[in-house]
Amino acid sequence: DDAPLTGLQIGVALLCGLILILDGYDLSTIGLVVPSLSHEWALAPAAFTQAFALSSVGIMVGAMASGPIADRFGRKPMLLFSVAMFGVFSLASAYASSLPMLVAFRFLTGVGVGGAMPTTVALTSDYAPARWRTSLVMFMFTGASIGGFFAGQVAAQILPTWGWQGVFMVGGIVPLALLVVLFFALPESPQFRGGARPASAKANPVSGLFQDGLALSTVMLWAIFLINLLNMYLIGYWLPTVLHLGGLTPADAAFATSIYSAGAILSTLLLGPLITRFGAEGVLALSLLLGSVSIAILATVPLAQAAMYVVLFVAGGGFVGSQL
Known about the structure:
Blueprint: H1 7-40, H2 49-73, H3 75-93, H4 99-127, H5 133-158, H6 163-185, H7 215-245, H8 250-278, H9 280-300, H10 305-323
């Protein structure tokens, strides 16, 4: 906790951030390909609701299972398994020939995506000195937004030529190639070297969040987290389809969606200094307000394309910034 920041610690954060870039890419792909899939499979966009829902259920399963598994077997094995999981089943999604098959593959992709998110935070935190821990974790977590941005940019280029299958193939091949690098370059947590388990693994019961006057804050934070996640998944899954139904081509809708993620990247970089100066509560309230007003404008006001990009940029910064 008192050690200076070293190249090793920065390297761990960078590798975990790279995992989250791929994680964010694979999380975004299903929403980006639905406009094309609905045409090719002659299905209404609403038919893909199960694919969206089961992706989120898979993320929940992966996130809930990753903690106990990582505490028992180590952070690195859990991360390698998660990357392999979302890589394999993203690649499999490119060969889906029916909606039920796609739903199953997206659930399994979600398990890998959900398993990687908290484990990258845990491993980065294990290596970070106390005074740098928050900054390193937030820097590392920009990877998820960067991945969403790249997904929209890549989809905009790939959809006209390779089709929806190409979007999934990139999301499968790149993580599987990265596995080799991670196997050799990613260190295990200091707490698990030699097969040891951390002594503090069972020292933080959930009941502690409701003691010492924390109950109201805990419930309010959980409520904000739930409501804002609803916003993020609703927008993340359906925005490309809504924009396509509004007149954009699938490729243009994917590009516009990437602007939403670009706003999230900028907000993540600005959050640390703003919180230091104005406090977390005020920054959170402002972020929620910006996200809500922006998405309401998008829903109700006819906008030129340039103005739409600006509103999407602010909405992404507001909602994703609130979550972080």
